[in-house]
Design a protein that fits this description.
The complex is a heterodimer.
Chain A (H helix, E strand, L loop, with lengths): L6 E2 L2 E2 L16 H34 L6 H13 L2 H25 L6 H39 L2 H7 L4 H39 L4 H8 L5 H9 L1 H17 L4 H35 L1
Helix pairs in contact in A: 1-6, 2-6, 3-4, 3-6, 4-6, 4-7, 4-8, 4-9, 4-10, 6-9, 9-10
Chain B lengths: L20 E12 L2 E12 L3 E6 L5 H8 L7 E6 L2 E2 L5 H8 L2 E4 L11 H12 L5 H14 L15 H12 L6 E5 L7 H18 L2 E5 L3 H7 L2 E6 L2 E6 L1 H6 L3 H9 L1
Parallel strand pairs in B: 3-8, 3-9, 6-7, 7-8
Antiparallel strand pairs in B: 1-2, 1-4, 4-5, 9-10
Helix pairs in contact in B: 3-4, 3-5, 4-5
Classes of the chains: A mainly alpha, B alpha/beta.
């Protein structure tokens, strides 16, 4: 019979001799639990403190010349054009899903005539923005986090600073601004694809002209019904770009650090995006309705 | 105990006689956690002079260079570059000082998404916006020719050797005609022939440009070749400072051991 050992934070208990099981020193676990929680709190506040300092450096760099226009244009292409296929595909898939699900639900209540409005409002007000945000967080957030982390561990960011160029202006501000500007445009693209494929999925079952679909879907709608939801994605872009740049530029630890930065950029970016959406939805309901 | 004796040798470029120090470091201290890296370092370098800083790995040599360029903030002490104290300067304030300095990183730190030519053009693109594209390209070509890398403008850093990366890094460091040159282990990781070529290149550039230079290295042969003065660090202090003959005459045990193992 193999010896069983129980190790505790205080030390190693005597080996199991085949008789009664060794007693676990539970009192030794209590200080380590406090230390763990305390350490977690310290890390939590340290992270937010560092984020605040980073935010200040980026903001002050972004508003003072010389401006990095060519880098900004490059990033607009990187974030916008290169994310478009993925976002369009995601939007198209969402449109089909909503079409199939809502048709089933509406037919149970005899309200299939409301399908166009249901699809339009679901895509533009809810699913389009959040799906675009999450897809871009995954693609762009991970890309920016990994790129900047790789530059950090290979001293390229230090080299930029040693060349008397502000890395917060060149690297962070341009990427964050590109995310802010591109998210609403990508959301519009996702919405358009979602509406198109949603209409197409419906038409296969119950023929409806696209013109009729659009007319019924937007019947009685005002700009306030759709524009705030689309432009709130600029806040998503701010969150995605910010978190990714922050995680990337503070990386330590070689290849493992780069991987961690990329993962954290996506996870934290997505998390904060969803939490922000809760606040933004309430804000839009109060201000614009 | 520090022994200092300045004797310029005929083979190496000599500093201008009586020139005021370009780099002045006084009682510099830096600790990382409980580990004291620098324990009150003081040194100075004049125009046209090359100081080699040697020591075992982990004795703070690279930290010293990073403090001089402002990448690391010291815990105490002062750093004056051309008479100006760099402590407390903002990032943009440091920028003006950094434009007078060239820094060669230990692994060259080339921007891997840019070609060799774009790497060298980087400081020019940001600080010499008065140059046209053609003028900038001509300047880049001249710089690469100076370091023996002509004809490699379009190559990517990942496609050239370590020695070639160091040369490109040196060309980039020289792009803004700096008055101060900081070199972090310029021959680290290179074969003896490539190391010798880098040493000759540094000597040639120093002869032509008369910069105030600090070279951090653990390569005694390289230090003897390119430096007017050598300083050996141990446990965060300057143990000895002077030319090679001064180091050879030293009775300090650590210095004798360091020279024996080099």
């Amino acid at each position: 019979m193999s010896a069983m050992t129980n190790s505790t934070a205080a030390g190693v208990n005597p080996p199991f001799d085949g008789g009664s099981p060794p007693a676990i020193d539970r009192t030794a676990l209590i200080p380590s639990a406090f230390e763990y929680v305390g350490g977690a709190f310290t890390e939590f506040f340290e992270w937010f403190g560092s984020l605040g300092i980073f935010a200040w450096k980026v903001l002050s760099a972004a508003v003072t010349p010389p401006y990095e226009w060519s880098e900004l244009i490059r990033q607009l292409d990187e974030v916008g054009s290169k994310s478009f296929p993925l976002v369009a595909l995601a939007g198209a898939a969402v449109g089909v899903i909503i079409s199939l699900e809502s048709r089933y639900s509406l037919s149970r209540f005899g309200a299939t005539s409301m399908f166009p409005e249901t699809l339009v409002y679901s895509v533009i007000q809810v699913m389009g923005p959040i799906i675009t945000g999450l897809v871009v967080s995954g693609r762009v957030g991970a890309g920016i986090g990994a790129e900047l982390a790789s530059m950090k561990v290979s001293e390229q960011i230090d080299a930029i600073e040693a060349s008397a160029v502000n890395p917060y202006r060149l690297l962070a501000a341009t990427r964050i601004l590109a995310c802010i500007l591109m998210l609403p445009l990508l959301t519009i693209a996702a919405d358009a694809c979602g509406l198109l494929t949603g209409w197409f999925a419906q038409t296969l079952v119950e023929p409806l002209s696209f013109h009729q679909f659009i007319e019924n879907g937007f019947q009685g709608a005002t700009f306030n019904a759709f524009l705030p939801q689309t432009f709130k994605t600029a806040v998503y872009g701010l969150i995605i770009g910010f978190i990714a740049c922050f995680q990337g530029m503070r990386t330590e630890g070689g290849a493992e650090g780069v991987g961690r930065a990329a993962t954290n950029s996506v996870v934290l970016g997505s998390l904060f995006l969803i939490l922000a959406d809760v606040v933004l939805v309430k804000f839009i309901l109060v201000v614009f309705r | 105990m520090v022994i200092a004796e300045d004797i310029a040798t005929k083979d190496r470029p000599s500093p201008e006689g009586g020139s005021a120090p370009v780099i002045e470091v006084e009682d510099l201290r830096k600790a990382f956690g409980t580990h004291n890296v620098l324990n009150g370092i003081s040194l100075s370098v004049s125009r046209g002079e090359t100081l080699a800083v040697l020591g075992r790995s982990g004795t703070g040599k690279s930290v010293l260079l990073r403090i001089l360029i402002g990448l690391v903030t010291p815990d105490a002490g002062s750093v004056r570059i051309q008479g100006q104290d760099i402590a407390g300067l903002s990032l943009d304030g440091l920028g003006a000082i950094r434009m007078k300095m060239g820094f060669l990183f230990q692994h060259a730190a080339l921007y891997d998404s840019l070609s060799v030519g774009e790497n060298v053009a980087f400081p020019l693109r940001h600080h010499r916006r008065d140059l046209s594209n053609a003028e900038r390209k001509e300047r880049v070509t001249q710089l690469l020719a100076e370091v023996g890398m002509e004809g490699n403008l379009e190559k990517m850093p990942s496609n050239i050797s370590g020695g070639m990366q160091k040369r490109v890094g040196l060309a980039r460091a020289l792009a803004l005609e700096p008055e101060i040159l900081l070199l972090d282990e310029p021959t680290a990781g290179l074969d003896p022939i490539s190391s010798g070529e880098i040493d000759e290149l540094i000597l040639k550039l120093q002869r032509e440009r008369q910069m105030a230079s600090i070279v951090v290295t653990h390569d005694m042969h390289s230090a003897r070749t390119i430096a007017n003065r050598l300083a050996i660090l141990d446990k965060g202090n300057v143990v000895i400072e002077g030319n090679f003959e001064t180091l050879q005459r030293s009775d300090i045990g650590f210095v004798k051991e360091f020279l024996k193992q080099s």
